[in-house]
Amino acid sequence: MLGLRAAAQLFQNAKSSPARSQLLTTSSAHYLQMASKSTQGAKLRTPKGFNKLLAVNMGFGVDQHGQDATEAAVRAVKHAMESTALPGVLSMVPGGHDKVKIKCKIGVPDSATVDVEAVKKAFYYGHVDVKCVPGGLRTHSGIIYPQSGDPESKDDVEADTSGDETDPVDSGHKARDEMFAAVASIRVGY
Question: Whole-prediction pTM value?
Answer without folding.
Answer: 0.69
